[in-house]
Design a protein that fits this description.
Elements (H helix, E strand, L loop, with lengths): L2 H41 L3
Length: 46
């Protein structure tokens, strides 16, 4: 049987997927914060 190898592969894929989702989430938060900061800085001149 090839059970341990399959289980290890699943664990690695989940770890990679979690890491990718974390990076995308951080990028989305960074863009959101940049839009807010740009709006605050842009609104200061009015």
């Amino acid at each position: 049987m090839n059970q341990p190898s399959d289980q290890h592969d699943i664990v690695q894929r989940r770890s990679a997927a979690r890491r990718t989702a974390l990076w995308f989430g951080l990028a989305a938060v960074a863009v959101y914060v940049l839009f807010i900061v740009a709006g605050v800085i842009g609104g200061m001149g009015k």
